[in-house]
Amino acid sequence: MNDDYLARAHELDLAAAKEAPIDDDCAPPERMYYLTMRALYKLYHIGAVSLDDAKAAKQEAVDLLTEQKYLHELYEHQARLEKVFRSEFDNEDNICKNGECRLYKLLCGIMDEDDVTEDEYNGEE
Known about the structure:
By secondary structure, the chain is mostly helical. Helix content is 68%, strand content 0%.
């Protein structure tokens, strides 16, 4: 488990326990974790949840936060890549020959590096 994720979970725990507001630009997985923990703390304080059940629920929430943060970061990375690809492919100077773009195929794993000659890779086909 990533130490940064655990540190962030701890920060969100403290905010949830104090019912302190969190940043508006907080990532969706962090916001969901905060809301879950805030509700869990309230349930524990009114006696609706035992300490053991609260600890188990908190551990499950931490595990889910870790997974969801990773997936969210992966999604954001993919969105940034798509933005770069779109800007590159929309540029008329970067149009590939015969509608076939070897760089795109290479990046997407459709073809191996061995299938591209040095001249093709350098755009000197």
